[in-house]
Amino acid sequence: MESVRAVDGLAEDAFDRTARLALRLLNGAGALICVVGDGGQTLKYRAVQAALGERGWERAVGSKLCAEAVVSGRPIVIDDMHDHPAHADPAVAGSDVRACLGAPLLLGEQPIGALWVVDVRPRSWDQEERRSLERLAVSLMNEIRLQLYIAERNRLYEQAAAAAVAERRRSRQLRDLARASVQINAAPSLEQALQAVTDHARELVGAHQSLTSFTTDPVRNYAMSALSLSDRYAAWRHVKVPAQGEGIFLLVCQNNRTMRMTQEELEAHPAWRGFGSYAGKHLPMRGWLAVPLIASDGQNLGVIQLSDKEDGGEFTADDEAVLTQLAQLASASIERAANLENQYEIARTLQRNLLPRSLPKQSAVEFASRYLPAASRAGVGGDWFDVIGLSGGRVALVVGDVVGHGIHASAAMGRLRTAIRTLADVDPTPDELLTRLDDMVIQMSAESGADAPDQTASAPSAISRAGLDTVDAGHDVEANVGATCLYAVYDPVSGRCSMARAGHPPPFFVAPDGTAAFLDLPAGPPLGLGGLPFESVDVELPEGSLLALYTDGLVESRKRDLDVGLETLRSVLTEPVDSLERLCDRTVQALLPDPPADDAALLLVRSHTLDDERVASWNVPADPAAVAGIRTEAVRTLVAWGLEELEFVTELVVSELVTNAIRYGSPPIQLRLIYDRTLICEVSDSNSTAPHLRRARTFDENGRGLLLIAQLTQRWGTRQTTTGKTIWCEQALPATSELSPKAHAA
Fold it and tell me: Higher confidence at residue 61 or residue 548?
């Protein structure tokens, strides 16, 4: 038993101390502590003796009699061994022991051994002596339990700290992967895409050598390759070594299988052929990691190879995982770039790659979307849409349009979409998000450093649509990046949606009773002008409301006025239909019967609210004594929801968050539990200071709560509110839990 082995390893000093105390207290001839493991095997003896010879008495008592105490779980009292059945055992009969008094050692309710005092003469053990020995046994086990608790707590803290370090390292790698993905996707040519993959591969893993090869035929001859070397191999940067496409390289390509080897393993591999006649020109290799590039149809596109780690060690499984993720991100870009013939195809494919191909389902809404790229090469632009899950079961809805055309517009769209997802994670209000996005567009324009007539020419139209005809026509729009955007946050608990727009067409709303209208939101300026404010508006969305978000390419064209397009959109969206997907198709067919001259995006959303039974909240007094009661109420709620499996973690989370709010926050304090696709726990207070994870030192009494929450929950975070802040975390639901149809409607 693991618990018995743990006791055996922790209690050396305690055993010795307790045995000596028992010997003095009961004035016996000897004292013994034994611990019994699986199958009755005695694992530990700790004996002290005063008047016993060396005749094996401790083994005699510690085997047969200790096993008897463990089996019974009760004290053993023997006044005269000659009158006890154990005397028949040769080991016992051959010892000097005549009287024994034993008290079981209980770990919880489990007997694991016994504490003994023995004498060499018959002895009548009185009641006080029995109680004294039992109290010693209890005291010993209390000390051992405390040691076990401390050891386990330290182990958990060390484990949590190590996991936090690994998570931070992994987060940095993921950020670097995201940046690499954007740069690779933005590469205007296959050659540049291969070089970006090669550079990022070497940087992400930390290697001196990186080579990415693109292949074109079954024998896997190189069609194009890119090399990235550190300063250590600067002398080889301009060496061109023809590749044969054979040996171990061919093995990776044919099997589409990652290979990771030390230099010794590489040279011992049967497919390794070295470099043939070019060995003298080829740079030396120290270890090898190769990951295939795989096309969407499963065919091999080439391989990314790394050699010679910067830290001097071998390539690890983590290195392999990072390079595999990079290869997965890079494969689609390389495949597309290889098939593009001109700048138009690159821009169009890049934009399609940056738009969401599939979005996770949300309980708050069900949705359907369409994106139609422009048929004209000049019209390829930067329309996008997104659905982003937020904390508290809420969801963010985004539709935007980068002004201008070509690959720059597509790349800008990707950066803006990524920026919105990043900003949404900190939960700003819609007007705050658009303000930050506006600053980013201005910065992007400044970084571009070149004029773009096609984009600036479109800016006046966007300004006019935004209702800003009074803006000075001479305003210096020196940037070559501009965009419009609509950002909305819907809360299924309150049923309210907060929206703001930056020069974007207003959303269309259809109530459950059929009432329909374009929502009157303040237009706001397009992104990239700067200096002008945005304004959020809250709108009530009853259960089953329909919200349509779209770009101007859907309703406006050279063949049709904007007013006509908007009226057509109203007519289609108010017609009865059995699904959002079919309604999307009808809308596109009605408004875009021909290939559009401009990109068009449509996002249809039907709102859902969470049942009141799925939300529980409590106002918490600013008194530490209230924590236990709140924790009990939370557990009762979990039981009512059938989520008993989550009780332990929820109790810990509630205790930590509520205690922190009482200790460091300001009233009023509120706890809220939401039963959605996850179990959400939120604690709010009026102090806007957000907590941060930190590593607690060994003797610190505080600072470990958030670490435990981060490790025990699926995700956690903080968001600022108009009255303070909310700290939240989510737990995955047990596999046996069942949400109501309404809660799972999305």
Answer: 548
